[in-house]
Specification:
2 copies of one chain form a homodimer. Chain A has helices spanning 21-29, 54-59, 81-90, 106-115, 153-166, 178-184, 198-205, 229-239, 265-276, 297-311, 318-321, 324-333, and strands spanning 7-12, 34-39, 64-67, 93-96, 119-121, 140-146, 171-174, 214-217, 243-248, 284-290, 315-316. Chain A is an alpha/beta fold. The radius of gyration of chain A is 21 Å and the shape is globular. The two termini of chain A are 32 Å apart.
Chain lengths: 345, 345
């Protein structure tokens, strides 16, 4: 799926900022794709971008109304239907990250049919995939892996894309989750794919490319998460990464949603190399990305220094301190990667 | 899904014995569930059981017409519709292992609706699952794992069930593939489940049980297969097996469907223990099951002896030599397992 841009961000009447988490991620990373926001009376979230009516958004060139909210049950409230239908009648496509499919709402389905507009349900994949083949393909790939779910794998891949492009690279973020799909306008929520096709879907998401091209693939889950490790392993095999970055949230005491303790960074490195060799014998770690927002700066620096010493890898907080050290290591490991901004291309 | 028995095996007009592979597997393991076969003119397969008309099958008590065939594309030929509708009108449910859903055929869908009969599409799962929790649950579980796909994981689990029951155990085969679901009348084709729910589905397939109960869980794929390892890992975590048996086909030179070499049995043991510990720290191998049909008896015995010596585990061909040695090892490892037929219960 290719979602037409720019987007009008629809927040409905979500009760707090967290309800607009998906939309906020898109604005954080693709501000220029977001023309404005549309909020219903009672909405308690604010993306800090212009409030627009459907008419204003259409006049400004908006092509997709993006339902960028998270709510309990993932359903579409009935009182949102009117605005969505109005957007369709004005000529916009609609994209949603909710569990419920847009076409389950009859008025929306009929409006889309009548006006020939597309409905994108990012949580669902109607794409058919081949099973993975595991054959080496040209191009370079980096995968972000984690000690757990929600430890910064998407943000790290996006930060790497931004910094590599600033250094003159041909680099592209590859989405494997719903927010990532909105941010890149393309991709597949890999956890929604039928199990037989996990690695095949990733081969489709990050296909063969030129020898100097880098795909920065958003990881999912963890090889050590008892709920989702199968997804993580299929993703690793399909990505066949040359390099990987381990993402970690040092304040966490147990894995998300289960009672299991977190694995150590060393365990994640060892098992990722062990399993990743199946489809790329040259796989290697190039850095550690920590989310240190729970710590003061001194403490954060100390945590990163300790990780760097323990694992012999650059360790940084991508949001707080940037990903420069990881890119420098990538440059040292791979000849085609430049080591500093403005280096020879 | 619980598929009502006994079955009338429908073979259509498949062109050879391989076309009836699914049906043959059911007859091999559940002869008494199979009332007879129904073959159309031109059918070249024969299950060696009575040929019955729909009327004869109904008179004999048949409750499900089972479409037990494999064909290119997995479609239902139009000229099979008449017999299937006739079975529904007579009061039978219909079960299919084809990729195409039965209800995609309008005449079949309407007949089922009109007569209140169920249509089972074993390749598809409409069951909703929770994500896996990885919490230890009571009961014993054994998983068959493999160096590759199609190396005897289902047959080994079924042979273990048969032999354990003969020794007086409370043992149950747990299906994770379509033929296995027909054989057990229950289960889920795990490769058809949405990726997020692989381990959760296995927790549902092999639930908590009494302390002396053994589930014998059919493995899928291989941790070393680049197409399907994600499924295998989710299955391992969801099964949280106390014991596993490594299945191997020694004549194979590359993994099924891909160019990758087979892993060694030692590699499979090591990685299965390494990853399986996440949900069961006590996981251990209890045997090696080889499919030696490509070899003469002397050669087969030599292969098994060599594996037994190399890995310190009983090695056998379940079909040719039985699974007795593996059960003896299980008895030595777990106090509640008896070591010989007729032993104290």
């Amino acid at each position: 799926m290719e979602i037409p841009r720019p987007y009008l961000m629809f927040l409905g009447d979500v009760p707090d900022q967290l309800g607009a988490k998906t939309a906020q991620g898109i604005v954080d990373w693709r501000r220029d794709w977001c023309l404005g926001q549309l909020r219903l009376p009672g909405c308690k979230a604010d993306l800090g971008i212009p409030d627009l009516t459907i008419a204003q958004a259409l006049a400004g060139g908006a092509r997709t109304l993006l339902v960028g909210v998270v709510n309990a049950g993932g359903v579409l409230p009935d009182h949102w239907t009117g605005v969505i239908v109005q957007a369709i009648e004005g000529g916009m496509d609609v994209a949603s990250g909710l569990h419920a499919r847009l076409e389950e709402n009859r008025a929306i389905a009929e409006a889309a049919r009548r006006h020939g507009r597309s409905l994108f349900n990012v949580r669902h994949s109607d794409q058919s995939f081949a099973t993975g083949k595991g054959t080496r393909r040209p191009g370079r790939r980096l995968l972000t892996v984690g000690t757990d779910c929600s430890v910064g794998k998407k943000y790290t891949a996006l930060a790497l894309e931004r910094e590599m492009r600033a250094r003159g690279y041909d680099a592209e973020f590859r989405a494997t989750g719903q927010t990532g799909v909105f941010i890149s306008g393309r991709g597949v929520a890999i956890d929604a794919v039928v199990a037989d096709f996990i690695s095949g879907a990733v081969e489709w998401i990050a296909p063969a490319a030129g020898p100097d091209h880098w795909d920065l693939i958003e990881g999912q889950g963890s090889l050590f998460h008892p709920s989702f490790a199968g997804v993580s392993l299929g993703l690793l095999h399909g990505a066949q990464p040359d390099a990987f970055v381990v993402c970690h949230e040092p304040s966490r005491t147990s894995m998300r949603g289960v009672a299991h303790p977190l694995p150590s960074i060393a365990e994640v490195i060892e098992l990722t190399v062990r399993c990743g060799r199946l489809t790329n014998p040259d796989i290697r770690p190039v850095g550690i990305a920590m989310n240190t927002q729970a710590y003061g700066e001194t403490e954060a620096r100390a945590l990163l220094d300790a990780a760097q010493t323990a694992h012999g890898l650059p360790a940084t907080d991508p949001i707080r301190f940037g990903v420069g050290p990881i890119l420098d290591r990538l440059a040292a490991e791979f000849h085609d990667v430049k080591s500093a901004p403005g280096g020879s291309v």
